[in-house]
TrEMBL record:
The keyword Nucleus does not apply. It is an enzyme of class 2 (transferase). It is a single-pass type II membrane protein. It is found in: Golgi apparatus membrane. The lineage of its organism: Eukaryota, Metazoa, Chordata, Craniata, Vertebrata. It comes from Seriola lalandi dorsalis. This is Carbohydrate sulfotransferase. One of its GO terms (biological process) is carbohydrate biosynthetic process. It holds the Pfam family Sulfotransfer_2. Transmembrane segments: none annotated.
Amino acid sequence: MKMPRGGRLFLATCLGSLFVLVLYFQSITKPEYGVKTGSRPGKIRRSPLQTLYNGDQQLDLLAAQRSLQGRRELLEQACLSHTRKRRVLSPEDLKHLIVDDKHSLIYCYVPKVACTNWKRVLMVLTSDGRYTDPLAIPANEAHVAGNLRTLSEFSVPEINQRLRSYLKFIFVRDPFERLVSAYRNKFTRRYNTAFHKRYGTKIIRRHRLNPEPEALEKGNNVSFQEFVQYLVDPRTQREEPLNEHWERVHTLCHPCLIHYDVVGKYETLEPDAQAVLSLAGVEGTLKFPTSGKSTRTDGNMAAGFFKHISPFYQKKLFNLYRMDFLLFNYSTPEYLRTR
């Protein structure tokens, strides 16, 4: 079997006898596939991947592209520096990669990094007119399994063809700001009773001295310190994978095995999202929803939460999320006391 130019072939086995071939590209200069437009039969328009790599976009898009290209290069360098073993990919690894066949896009969603709004946008893009306004889609509907297709649902040849020819993008965030955001949403909101029961009761039982019976029953008053102790407890990952809301990005999206063409950041969400929509050719008809929240988790808020975490646990937590800091070029927060 002849290897495609510029690519590396990985053979992945799922439990049992299911095999998945994943093509990993260090660089892509001439995408193979165009996309037929709906306006003129037979006319071929450039795919987002071709638009990105051919470099003949408008000046504003070119400026955004230079920033995105720098992030891609930093990610590739970090992968080479900090990963030693190439493990194989299985269908389970592809469940966070959402596919838009109409616009040749693959998006790896990361909870607490604007993923609800990206799912809404993709529902508009893939709905054949059923949805037109992302913000009109209820948040819970955006997360319903089956509303969007994931790469894990396709056959081996279909997976390879899409990885080879679609624009693959991911949005990331400062790891500890994302973690604090997840804690605030899942453990300090009264409506998240499912998380309180599923995780809160376990956390309180293991990490609180002399807990009250009500706390053991409801699990609705977990402190951030108890949450951190739970995360770094060796038993936690031995028992089951971390929940996706606080799982590491490199574990959810495998950026050293899958070549992401666009690495967007939460800190520059609006221009980065605009760049993706421009590459997809829909910037004139669709706008990425902006958040009006005034209580969004930022560095100052995260620093306040970490102020009460001992240096011992801060260091353990940093080591747990270290790869996300390294791969996506985030500096060690100044508020950490790990020495």
